[in-house]
Amino acid sequence: MVIVLEKNIRDDDKQRIRNFLEKNSLRVNEITGEEETIFGAVGKVGIDPREVEILPGVQRVIPISKPYKMASREFKREDSVVNVRGVKVGGRRVSVIAGPCAVESAEQIMESAARVAESGAVMLRGGAYKPRTSPYAFQGMGEEGVRILREAGDAYGLPVVTEIVSAEHIPAMRDYVDVYQIGARNMQNFELLKKVGALGKPVILKRGLSATIEEWLMAAEYLLASGTEDVILCERGIRTYERATRNTLDLSAIPVLRSLTHLPIIVDPSHAVGVRDKVSPMSLAAIAAGADGLIVEVHPCPDCALSDGAQSLYPEQFEKMMRDIEVLAPVVGRSVSRRPVPSSVLGGQKKKTAETSSASRPLTCAYSGGRGAYAEQAIQRYYDDEATALPMANFREVIHAVLDGRAEYGMLPIENSLAGSVYENYDNLALYEDIEIVGAVTLRIEHSLLALKGATIDDIQSVYSHPQGLAQCDDFLSKYPAWKHIETASTSGAAELVASAQDKTRAAIASEVNAAIYRLQSLKTGIETNPRNYTRFVVIARSGELVCENPNHSTVIFTVANRPGALHEALGLFMKHGLNLTKLESRPIQGEPWRYRFYANVNLPEGVASSVVAAEHMKAALAEMQKMSQDDGIVQGVRILGLYNTKELA
Ligand code: PEP
Ligand code: MN
Q1: Mean per-residue pLDDT for 49-76?
Q2: Å from CA of 133 to ligand 1 middle
Q3: Domains with residue ranges and CATH for the chain
Q4: Does the reported pTM lie above 0.85?
């Protein structure tokens, strides 16, 4: 094992560690490097690394005796993300795969795909070659099954997952399958693992009926060593003495695996519990325990299913479960993965530029609020009235609309020059890994006092607005001390309320545009205390859909190690690459008290002939940051939120 010692370790602590290792029959080699001092300890006798880890002066212990290499966390520090035709598994997402145990007919699989897609599944499962305990049970539809599974997946934009039981079936499967599943019974079928690994496609590797975690990782090693880089581990319950459930779902495997491997981990609650009423509770438990996703059996008619009907959810149960997961996921710092926008929705184009996309079709941009909201104005002005503004109930809905294709873009406020950062959206940007910033716009916020037509300022007795609207106009309001101040959820909502009440004594503080929308009149415009009142919005899109050709701005998220100088070193990289850091925001990391996620805004350098070069500077800095995260973990979780253009609107 490798024992990394703390930087300022005391001599007596060092000696004590050495004595402890030697007493346990290990030979100790001291290696003094520039950055750190380590002890290499070798010997025939095994020793529990935890016993060494707790010794004073030990920073970390890296066992080098693991039989699996490529699957191990030491091999790759960052979590792996498996990308299945645009659907990602791993990272901060919860990706749900659903469908029947077996493909039974074209109608059955088509109906299954429709129902699971509607509820939010991102991939379709269905067995065509079924490894059944009894030779007399339904064995699956074979090649025909794989073909119709693919047709159903394509019809609803869902990549497909199906089990392979023999390498002989590869020719019949390879044109249709997106993810090969290795079933529990075949986890240690090493010849099959080698052949499937060599296909280079994503694989879901289920845990064997009585496999230890180490045996399971060795099976993953077979796949990785044979050629694929994309292995997803699936806990599906193990054989124990307990018979109340079909198997015993080992949820503790999730945190255990998390430290041993970088591979994504999903859970199959269906085969674990074997009865449908226990599937949803265990699904939620799996998400709470840190699973990257689920694979769940859902059948349009479980009572007519040819296999595993008893554990298959009714589509309505699946829908309810997905809603519950939607609520739970943010609590544990995750977001539910959504289906990518089918390319037909985007006019069949994959890569477009932010500048040319508006020419290709009328675009839609979602925002939070009602008609007349400032975000709506930001959309109209950013897109020169070329975009349809789609109102949503809240910021998360804006993101969901972008992810599932109802809108191409979203407009989210990120900071106000008087009130400061909109933290909710900073957190949303970190939570949703499949969105990126493709633009930014600064809008001047000018408030007006709006009332019914015919009303005069002397009629007014109460004034309605968002708390920000009231606060930003307090000089004006102080001239009318008798007025009552009533808070509303939004400024446009205040205008709507005054219009619907048809009461001359009420007024709203909102943008002037609301006068026309709600048939009101403006009694006074420009009533904000400080006319230098601006809100900066970011324009978001689904990641990878757009490329900005002339970026002048970038935002990057990262965290740093909890040690002196770590943030300083990370920030030093921006200077080194000539990048102008214009804003640094930090937000607490959920579940890790006193650790923060940093958001750095960077102006790409002026005077560089081509903005491509500017972007290269940024990428060089990030590459170096990423290297720092690999080398000694000073910087972690580096993510470019976007390379984009900012627009200033007066
Ligand atoms: C299945 O997913 O349908 C299946 C047979 O699972 P397992 O291999 O986990 O039993
Ligand atoms: Mn099954």
Answers
A1: 83
A2: 11
A3: 2-62 (3.30.70.1140), 82-336 (3.20.20.70), 448-527 (3.40.190.10), 548-650 (3.30.70.260)
A4: no
